[in-house]
Amino acid sequence: MKKTVLITGATSGLGYEFVKLFANDGYDLVLVARNTQKLEEIKLTYSNLNVSIISKDLSVPGSAKEVFEEVESLGIEIDFLVNNAGFGLLGKFDELDINKQLNMVHLNVMALTELTYYFLPKMKKKNFGKILNVASTAAFQPGPLMAVYYATKAFVLSFSEALVEELSETNITVTTLCPGATKTNFGSVANVEDTKMFSQAMNSSNVAKTGYLSFMKGERVVITGTFNKIGAYSAKFLPRSLSAKIAKYVAGEK
Ligand SMILES: NC(=O)c1ccc[n+]([C@@H]2O[C@H](COP(=O)([O-])OP(=O)(O)OC[C@H]3O[C@@H](n4cnc5c(N)ncnc54)[C@H](OP(=O)(O)O)[C@@H]3O)[C@@H](O)[C@H]2O)c1
After folding, report:
1. Cα 213 to middle of ligand 1, angstroms
2. Which domains does the chain possess?
């Protein structure tokens, strides 16, 4: 039977790359993002597949449940869940807008958690499913000047790895993708394009492809790029205070 994937943040960057990868392999799609026009354009591109689009601002409380209810009302069963939508913000915690930072927590953490919660029971019932949660190399250390963003991604990694263990007796896999700086709209939204961390940004199609292949194999955690792997592993051995200083340095201007 044909499998269906739900992808959040499907309209640009990594999410759109995931759309192309799943579509090329013939999966049906449920695409979620705010930009309705872009969602409709993508749907038209893949007229050979069943594509459902859901325009939703996932930073709004209750929105993830509404997505689940819409999927249910369409009679669609989700086999693969890709929790990709997210954004970051550069600046000192107390100087950034609190509402934008709370929206970020809601999108990066709450929506991802809720969507996983709502779609998991049916995966468990049929003992099949795959979940891809997009974290970041930000997950591995504290991130001064992007304090809330780094913390949201630490949550995603910790939550996802815990689920791997909870689901170890099932045929359901949870993969956490941890990209480093990648060329998407993220840079301009977060205002990090002129920072040192973005001077070596990777190509989004390569990052998504690596994530996709690891997801299909059911791998636990995937860090994209050799430099990012070294950074993430060394963060495990460095004192957190030193890791935080390095993160602050790379968040500075080039
Ligand atoms: N690019 C990087 O350097 C990088 C590095 C590490 C991790 N990541 C992570 O990768 C994921 C994808 O980001 P990206 O780099 O591909 O950035 P992007 O190009 O800005 O894409 C973000 C996607 O999320 C959607 N989105 C944003 N806010 C939303 C909201 N409130 N409700 C629903 N959808 C929303 C956007 O669509 P609409 O505008 O249509 O809503 C868009 O499709 C994020 O979780 C990000 O944290 C990115």
Report:
1. 20
2. 4-250 (3.40.50.720)
